[in-house]
Write a structure and sequence with these properties.
8 strands; 6 helices; two-stranded antiparallel sheet; Chemotaxis protein chec; alpha+beta; 140 residues
Length: 140
């Protein structure tokens, strides 16, 4: 959990906050996330996600599309000595990461957002927070 602001450099490197580095390990999987962000998983978490993806029905077009979007963009990223990972350019372009980024802990994974996208997303979610909470009461 938590929210941290960092910059992505011209080589596509971004610092992974120390709190997340401890949990993510030295190698992590980065892929296309929902709502315009990138999702980061530990290798173990990625294996769980991958197993669930394999269970989706290949006869359903939406399932195939979802699997293609998640797996085709996935990349292994290793931490360097400064605690950074290099985001592949295809993923940076996907999430429109240019300079200012927000790294967010979200229950079972970490997300990287372009700061402008995050600010817009967060404003929308904040504006509707009570309505969203009320619509989800059956899950609590």
């Amino acid at each position: 959990m938590g929210e941290y602001q960092h910059k992505i450099d011209t080589k596509g490197r971004i610092i992974v906050p120390a709190k997340f580095r401890e949990e993510l390990g030295d190698t992590m999987i980065v892929t296309k996330g929902l709502d315009g962000c990138l999702a980061i998983y530990t290798e173990e978490q990625w294996q769980d996600v991958y197993e669930k993806l394999k269970k989706l029905p290949t006869t359903k077009r939406e399932a195939r599309m979802y699997v293609h979007m998640i797996t085709s963009k996935a990349a292994e990223c290793d931490l360097d000595a400064q605690g950074r990972i290099r985001i592949p350019s295809h993923l940076s372009e996907e999430a429109k990461l240019e300079k200012d980024c927000v790294i967010v802990g979200v229950s079972d994974h970490v997300e990287i957002w372009d700061k402008g996208r995050w600010d817009n997303y967060y404003a929308l979610a904040s504006e509707n927070f009570e309505d969203i909470a009320e619509s989800l009461t059956e899950y609590f």
